[in-house]
Design brief:
Layout: E1 2-3, E2 36-40, E3 43-47, E4 83-85, H1 87-98, E5 104-108, H2 112-115, E6 124-125, H3 138-147, E7 152-154, E8 157-159, E9 165-169, H4 177-187, E10 195-198, H5 201-207, E11 213-214
Parallel strand pairs: 4-10, 5-6, 5-9, 9-10
Antiparallel strand pairs: 1-11, 2-3, 7-8
Length: 217
């Protein structure tokens, strides 16, 4: 993996991370939260903000206009019971995953060409078009549900008693990839309270200068 940020730090934890000295990082994630370490594949990665206070946004997310449809502004509430969350909540779920909580999965819903430009450390990629329920290959969909999301199949029905809490995101408030997957999951009975949606996605993550990783070449 290759980090977009050039900085490496070791994180000490309290609820998410223990405070470092004020001089250690001038740009923290939040007060008392300078950075958080997670595993991305087999590599330990520090999630932190870019320390260059003159840094500007990644050009991939600098556009203010895209054709709508399909790139329309998404609502703040995607569906009843599905919580819309921000960066600190995403980091919280990533930290819990890193601490061994196997009931949580943070999913990058984008296609591999977008993931190749950088993704959030600690996440897994399940391309939206593979999990496009009702349109994708049913065997592929079932495989994803069972192997990644903790869903069981029994007598032709999906069972969600052990379904994971899934945090889904894509490119940002104008992106329909994760919303398409979330709506599809709801249609087959996935519990709404086990779905979290990071509406800001990579657009907001990059805008805040948070660390990203790229697949190894």
């Amino acid at each position: 993996m290759k980090l977009r940020t050039l900085f490496t730090v070791s994180a000490l934890f309290t609820s998410l991370a223990m405070p470092m000295t004020a001089s250690a990082l001038e740009v923290a994630i939040a007060a008392g939260l300078p950075s958080v370490e997670v595993m991305h594949g087999d590599q330990k990665v520090a999630i932190m903000r870019n320390q260059d206070q003159k840094n500007t946004i990644n050009p991939d997310f600098a556009k203010t206009s895209r054709k709508c449809p399909p790139f329309c502004i998404q609502p703040g509430e995607l569906a009843p019971g599905v919580a819309t969350i921000g960066e600190l909540e995403v980091i919280h779920y990533l930290k819990k995953m890193n601490d061994g909580d196997k009931s949580i999965l943070v999913v990058d819903s984008r296609t591999p060409d977008w993931v190749a430009k950088g993704t959030i450390p600690g996440t897994i990629n399940i391309p939206w078009d593979k999990l496009n329920i009702g349109k994708s290959d049913p065997i592929t969909v079932q495989d994803i549900l069972e192997k990644h999301l903790g869903v069981r199949s029994q007598d032709g029905f999906y069972m969600f008693d052990n379904a994971k809490t899934v945090v889904m995101f894509c490119n940002g408030p104008w992106c329909g990839q994760s919303p398409t997957n979330i709506r599809g999951l709801l249609k087959i009975g996935y519990p709404a309270d086990k779905i979290k949606w990071y509406r800001g996605g990579m657009q907001d993550w990059e805008m805040l200068g948070l660390s990203t990783v790229k697949p190894a070449k």
